[in-house]
Design brief:
Layout lengths: L1 H55 L3 H6 L4 H9 L7 E7 L5 E4 H4 L14 H9 L3 E6 L8 E11 L2 E11 L3 H50 L9 H15 L4 E10 L2 H8 L1 H19 L5 E5 L2 E9 L4 H15 L2 E3 L2 E3 L3 E7 L7 H18 L4 E3 L2 H22 L4 E9 L5 E11 L5 E2 L1 H11 L2 H16 L7 E5 L10 H12 L6 E6 L7 H13 L3 E7 L7 H5 L4 E4 L13 H15 L3 E4 L5 H9 L4 E2 L13 H7 L8 H14 L1
Parallel strand pairs: 11-12, 14-16, 16-17, 17-18, 18-19, 19-20, 20-21
Antiparallel strand pairs: 1-2, 1-5, 3-4, 4-5, 6-8, 6-11, 7-8, 9-10, 13-14, 13-21, 14-15
The structure holds ligand C2E and calcium ion (CA) (2 copies).
One calcium ion (CA) binds next to loops.
């Protein structure tokens, strides 16, 4: 702004100066022109009057030369009738001495010797032949308002006989000339204005437009166009300035990063216009909380940030603001399409405590946000150092997932599943294994969620299905293989096609493949997922509901989709052996329900004989767990397959010895 202002000034000052010079110049040229005109006019009047005198007064040369007495001269000259504008005149001889003075003669006076002093003006006119001229102002009573005083050589025929000084009334001529001058001056002024002023005004306007354009350009490079919030670069700079300015004053700066929880849903179900409206309203709510927009930024599609200076002595204000933000966002938004609930998660961190640079400050707030997103949506979460190691851990795992995929370093282990009534081996569940760079195993409970959030699960899922199918193809025909599917794999919408392709590639009969899904897969986009699952079933593949009894456990899913099997979560095993325990009651209900719905039930995580016996009592169909067999590497499978039974069920014999042993002890 300052620069543009200086540029305007640097052009305007010379322009104004030029206008002033031209204006003043025009004034002086105009004024000297009319003065010259006035002078020529007076000269003309004087010389005409001179000729008139010569004609009127027969012996003028003798009178001027002093050949007559003072009385005669006074009588003759006093009788002259001044003509035109001339109202007074004087005559000087060749020595420039006064010989006649009309004003005195007409009053009946005469000239005395003392009056006949040499007149310098007359002498100068005679000597140089230059006319003497002056325009004078009178009082309008004794003398006219304006009059010219002119002295010219007095000529008779071709002889100069003296000088004539004439006073001519210019009260009419001069104002008229001056009026003309003024109107010319006005015209000149208008011309000057046209010549300089109009371009000047246009120039000024242009400069103002330029300044406005510069301002809006600056705005668009510093602010987000939709919400009017700061953009990331400006925000970073402002946080920087705040940090710098707070040094040594007991002040510090906190950053809050805010992410809308259901923005995508709103955008998809209500349209982009509603999405835009939601973002604007979000910015407005934040502005209301902050009282200014100079602390609020939009960092991404639905991600905002706030910087907050605070007194180091009272850091609680930061947590308070974070909670206020989460609360403000939890309120419904009134959009043109109707009311929507969106909500937002907030992560925040403190300069000095959590980070020592602005970038790190924003990053740590981002990490806290990430935590809020995954653990406590709709809430505000403060950064803690554990999050940083967690982030590093996630980054390492992600890297490892990528290399394992590229180098086929994953492994699948298989856990046997046995039939309760016959103890016969019915098949295996395929479980994915990955090691870190040093060959140490990493739990799938850790790497699967990361594979899901990074999207790597798609390629990994295809790899597992192919590998499991390929291996299972080599087993006896009556054994099935169960493969876990992640909800994230359904996002692509080509699950059934993928399964069909893999079966065609491996040659595994569809009825030997069982896919395990968890309830969470049915929570979002139920219709789409149901269609996919139906298409999978149509291939002849069976579908099991995994981890049943955890999470949402809405029985509604059991009616909506024809599952083939329920896998009861291992959490039921812990107090299963206690008579009348909740787990046992629920499990018995689930099994009864499954019978009605014609579903098989597998109990997972069976670790003890006691659990196995209860499960048999409850008429659970299948069992799987460490008691019957750990997840096993492929090369060891033939032994398990050849044995065909687990042999882990306590026989009546062993039960009796144990009972006897216990009695003996008592
Ligand atoms: P899950 O599908 O419920 O798998 C059963 C888990 O229970 C396995 O853990 C298995 O090793 C463990 N387990 C088996 N018997 C017992 C027992 O008697 N006691 C106890 N305490 N645990 C037992 P694992 O292999 O660590 O897998 C954990 C989870 O990771 C799986 O839970 C599954 O959700 C996921 N997962 C594993 N492999 C894959 C895969 O290839 N794809 C997908 N999407 N998820 C997989
Ligand atoms: Ca499973
Ligand atoms: Ca399970």
């Amino acid at each position: 702004m300052l620069r543009v202002g200086r540029r305007v000034a640097s052009r305007v000052v010379p322009l104004a100066f030029a206008t002033a010079v031209v204006g003043l110049g025009a004034y002086f040229v105009g004024y000297s022109t009319i003065s010259d005109m006035q002078r020529s006019h007076a000269e003309y009047v004087a010389s005409s009057f001179g000729r008139y005198l010569v004609e009127e007064v027969g012996n003028l040369d003798a009178i001027v030369a002093g050949a007559h007495s003072a009385q005669v001269v006074a009588a003759v000259i006093g009788a002259v009738k001044p003509i035109g504008t001339v109202y007074d005149f004087r005559l000087f001889d060749k020595n420039s001495r006064l010989r006649a003075d009309y004003a005195r003669f007409k009053d009946g006076q005469v000239l005395h010797l003392a009056d006949r002093v040499r007149n310098d003006v007359a002498a100068n006119v005679l000597a140089t032949s230059h006319v003497s001229f002056a325009l004078r102002e009178g009082d309008g009573v004794a003398s006219p308002r304006y009059y010219s005083d002119i002295t010219i050589p007095l000529v008779d025929g071709d002889k100069t006989i003296g000088t004539l000084s004439v006073l001519s009334d210019e009260t009419e001529t001069w104002p008229r000339l001056f009026d003309q001058f003024r109107s010319v001056l006005v015209q000149v002024a208008l011309l000057v204005a046209a010549a300089f002023g109009i371009p000047g005004v246009l120039y000024l306007r242009k400069m103002r437009q330029l300044a406005n354009a510069a301002r809006s350009l600056r705005h668009s490079t510093q602010y987000d166009g939709l919400t009017g919030c700061l953009n990331r670069a400006t925000f970073t700079r402002i946080v920087h300035d705040l940090v710098e300015g707070s040094q040594g004053k007991g002040l510090s700066v906190a950053v809050h990063v805010i992410d809308l929880d259901r923005f995508k849903d709103v955008n998809e179900s209500h349209g982009h216009a509603a999405g835009d409206q939601l973002l604007k309203e979000t910015a407005l709510r934040l502005r209301r909380l902050m009282g200014t927009r100079e602390r609020i930024a939009r960092l991404g599609a639905d991600e905002f940030a706030i910087c907050q200076p605070y007194y180091v002595a009272s850091p609680q204000v930061v947590a308070e603001l974070a909670d206020d933000i989460a609360r403000a966002m939890a309120k419904p938004f009134e959009l043109s399409g109707g009311k929507v609930l969106c909500g937002a998660s907030v992560g925040y961190s403190y300069y000095g405590r959590d980070a020592h640079s602005v970038d790190a400050l924003i990053q740590t707030a981002d990490l806290a946000l990430h935590n809020a997103k995954t653990r406590s949506r709709g809430k505000a979460v403060a950064f803690d150092p554990g999050m940083e190691s967690q982030r590093q851990f996630r980054a390492t795992i992600e890297q490892r997932l990528r290399t394992s995929l590229v180098n086929s370093e994953f492994e699948i282990v298989f856990q046997p599943v046995y039939e309760t009534t016959t103890d016969r081996l019915r098949g295996f569940e395929a479980l994915l294994r990955m090691t870190d760079n040093d060959g140490k195993p990493i739990s799938p409970a850790e790497f699967i969620p990361i594979a899901e959030s990074t999207g790597l699960i798609h390629d990994i899922g295809v790899w597992v299905l192919r590998e499991a199918s390929r291996i299972a193809k080599q087993w006896p025909e009556d054994l099935v293989v169960a493969v876990n599917l992640s909800p994230a794999q359904f996002a692509a919408g080509d699950m059934a096609a993928m399964v069909r392709d893999v079966l065609a590639w491996s040659g595994l009969a569809p009825h030997r493949l069982e896919l395990e899904v968890t309830e969470s897969v049915l929570i979002t986009d139920t219709e789409v997922v149901l269609k996919e699952l139906m298409a999978i079933k149509a291939l002849g593949v069976s579908v099991a509901l995994d981890d049943f009894g955890t999470g949402y456990s809405s029985l509604g899913y059991l009616w909506r989709f024809p599952f083939d099997k329920l896998k009861v979560d291992k959490s039921f095993m812990s107090d299963l052996t206690e008579e009348g325990s909740k787990s046992r009651e629920i499990l018995s209900t689930i099994i009864a329900l499954a019978k009605v719905l014609d579903l098989k039930v597998t109990a997972e995580g069976v670790e003890t004989e006691a659990q196995a016996l209860v499960l048999r009592d409850l008429r659970c169909d299948l069992v799987q767990g460490f008691l019957f067999g750990r997840p096993t590497r492929t090369i060891e499978l033939p032994t398990i397959i050849q044995r065909g039974v687990s042999g882990k069920w306590p026989t009546v014999e062993t039960m009796r010895t144990r009972l006897v042993g216990r009695r003996g002890a008592a």
